[in-house]
User: What shape does this take?
Amino acid sequence: MLNRLMTMAALALALGAAACTAKVEDEGQAPDVDVSGGEMPKVDVDPANVNVSTDTQTVVTPDVNVTP
Assistant: This one.
């Protein structure tokens, strides 16, 4: 019941948002930003130890008889 109610609420919200129109009156402008200086953070990282190897295994599979 709650799942159905949530679905109906989401559908109503989507329909309401789709019915809206917006008109941009002023294009606006991004601010001028001056960036200088700074330092990268020091990070001590211990990577995981991953061992990769190969191994041969025998897999027992059932016999299947197929007749046309």
Q: What stands out?
A: The longest helix spans residues 2-18. The chain has a mean pLDDT of 85.
